[in-house]
Amino acid sequence: MGIQERLIEDVGLRRGVSRLTPEKIEKTIGAVLKGETGARLATYAETCMRCGLCAEACHFALSHPGDPSFTPAGKVHQTMSVLLDRKGRVDPDFIYGMAQLAYTECNLCRRCVHFCPIGIDTAYIISVVRRICHKLGVTPQYIQDTAHSHSAVFNQMWVKDDEWTDSLMWQEDEAREEFPGLRIPLDKEGADIYYSVIAPEPKFRTQLIYQAAAILHMSGKDWTMPAHSGWDNSDMCMFTGDFEMMGRLKRRHFESAQKLKVKRIVMGECGHALRSVYDVGNRWLGYSYPPVPVIHAVEFYWELIQEGRIKLVKKFPGPVTIQDPCNIVRGKGLQQKLREVTRFLVEGDIVEMHPNMEHNFCCAAGGGVINCGPPFKNQRVAGNTVKAEQLKATGVKTVITPCHNCHGGLHDIIHHHKLGMELKFLSDIIYECMEKPEA
Amino acid sequence: MNAAYEFVTGPLAWLAWGIFLLGSAYRLYSMYQLALKKDAPSVSFMDLGFSLRSIFNWLIPFNALGWRKSPVMTVTTFAFHLCLIAVPVFLVAHVTLWTEFFGISYATLPDNVADIMTLVVLAACLVFAGRRLTQKEVAYITTGKDWLALTIVTLPFLTGFLAYHQVFDYQVMIVAHIVAGEIMLAAIPFTRLSHMVFAAFTRAYMGSEFGGVRHARDW
After folding, report:
1. Structurally, how many domains does chain B consist of?
2. Per residue in B159-198, pLDDT tens?
3. Which of residues 133-192 of A touch B (CB under 8 A)?
4. What is the pTM of this model?
5. If exposure means fewest CB atoms within 10 Å of the residue's CB, which of A28, A122, A258, B55 is most exposed?
């Protein structure tokens, strides 16, 4: 049992490992452990009592009953514990397995936090393992490609500056048929709201920009989108362990909002981007909290509803269930607002999954795992049969899923298990049910 | 035998307590310095209220999700830790020693209660050992350090129980018991048992992050 018995061929990992020497490995691991870690890692490594309580936490472990190598402590046991015990003297083959495990078998979802009496943060430990892999140049090819895109064009999907503005103008053009007078205001200085998205939105979920524009337009908000780089709030570099690049990305993002002198950033329905902007990237730059206030779409819709700015002509027919995205629930406690927004939009039952809210099961796509691409897809889907069972038990056909990664992850699970469920962003439902000029 | 008893209750006891207290203080101090130097982004989020909230919630049996999902372990570990601390501190024979050496005296546990509590500790150690041997997810991650910690904790209670019931030679057993207790004290700062020193702080940190930043329960 263990990662070495389930290795998957990946070009990025293979090529990275082929360049390694034992000396380079030892030196790099030593540099990260000594230079970048301190009391947190030391106490976690020393005081983990190896009690195994966390085995009950992880969707990977629960989906592979009887295989302890998928438990949170089991994953640390195969990676960081070995690095510490051997003081970095491990061979390239070990690094291959370590990288595959850290990048594709842990979503950094932090559910295990609810199981460790001592308060060990396994996600942090695995992040340090990823950091070492990044420094060694051993990263899965697909996610590394997105990281390269970040460093070249400051967005995740190789969207060029002209393609970006072109996409926005295209959506504006389309939307003006339905909403005469609608604008997607570019670079409007002093706007109340800077609306930010992740690069997959202009790339292949452009209707989400359309819907956001419609909601912002009909709610009468003063808003803008930037015409230049910095618009993408996503961050695969945070997940590959390229923290220097993560810092550059977040700086560009915050500065683009600051240059426009906006009051705050409203971000679309994405989980990992919130983690990057609100929790991780800001700290790398030395900000305890984002230098420009940031709120997630769930909070924003909640506000609009409180202010009476979303007018519905109908309600969405239930029953529905709700997927709690880790990064907005365990990351910012938005579970209640998510339910209040859903209650406002949906007629009929909200059938809860169990466990739910901050005890939810991850979608198995987050933490950069889905971004590692097709080679690891089967393992990812197999790693979340508990989610399939959870979804099936609700007996409903609609899953409200306010996170891009959750969409991707659940889509694959639903398809694989033939659950026949459809996924909806909140904005899909708001757009569908809201008052429109012709109506 | 008297000389051995004198030695283990005299110089060796001073040594063991010295290593325990000074060692723990040193470990805490140096870990704090390391945290200030390397973990500033974590230290700056520490919050007393959220720390205590987290510690309090984890001290309630079956309150945390993890406790609820492993009921046998929950009952075992709560009973174990309670007895592990209460028995040595409030045992009549131990308090007598404090009185004899330093003139300190305080409340004690009735001997028969302490006896049962000792058995609870030993039974819990058996459960822990059984889990390490038979439960896959525990066996997989168990290392020599974990067996060492378990052994160090088991021995003082085992020898104490045997000495109290005068099984084998009492004189030998009581010296063995004292030595075992002293080994445990001295081992606290430098083995897995150091969670006694650090756990409150790792718990507090997690509580602070989840309370102050993530606005979610961490239990």
Report:
1. 1
2. 999 999 999 999 999 999 999 999 999 999 999 999 999 9
3. none
4. 0.96
5. A258
